[in-house]
């Protein structure tokens, strides 16, 4: 297998990032959401981060032999309870072809290194409850659920 390398995303990655967001709803989406709605919301913040890079954001591309096989977008936020800065993974996508090859781990490792370099002691992410594959990957990598959000459609 050709090694996977990480690099920062740039304007030339826009087409790949747009296509990658279609994978974000590749699970049983709740009835009150649509796959398109999920992709569009994440696409908007991802493209904004690439267009206006800053110290508080990170957009990584996982590259294998010159082909993007995944991406990750992380931001800096403040913990609700103690106000400490924490990294938050907003988007992580692995292509179907690269699924199961450790690309997600490589991307999350990159985000964790970025967070540590900034002195953050925690990193967070969200996952839809029905996205069992992603949740299993996160838990395998040492992430644990903290808060469960409940929603009632009115």
Please describe the structure with a list of short key phrases separated by commas or semicolons.
single chain; 154 residues; alpha+beta; Aminopeptidase; 4 helices; 5 strands; globular
Tell me what you see in this structure.
With 154 residues, this protein is α+β, with helices and mostly antiparallel strands. It has one domain: Aminopeptidase (3-Layer(aba) Sandwich), CATH 3.40.630.30. Helices cover 31% and strands 25% of the residues. The protein is built from 4 helices and 5 strands; from the N terminus they run βααβββαβα. It has helices at residues 14-20, 35-51, 103-117, 132-140; strands at 4-8, 57-64, 67-78, 85-94, 123-125. Strands 1-2-3-4-5 form a 5-stranded mixed beta sheet, with helices on both faces. The radius of gyration is 15 Å and the shape is globular. The relative contact order is 0.17.
Reported for the largest beta sheet, the result is:
5 strands, mixed
CATH architecture: 3-Layer(aba) Sandwich
Element-by-element helix/strand order = EHHEEEHEH
Q: Hey, roughly how much beta strand do the residues contain?
A: 15-25%
CATH H-level homologous superfamily name: Gcn5-related N-acetyltransferase (GNAT)
Fraction in helix: 25-40%
Class by alpha and beta content: alpha+beta
**Which segments are poorly predicted (pLDDT under 50) over 5 or more consecutive residues?**
none
How many discrete structural domains? 1
Coarse shape: globular
Overall radius of gyration:
15 Å
Output the CATH topology: Aminopeptidase
CATH class: Alpha Beta
- N- and C-termini, Cα separation: 50 Å
Mean pLDDT: 94
Number of helices: 4
**Number of beta-strand segments:** 5
Side-by-side strand order of the widest sheet: 1-2-3-4-5
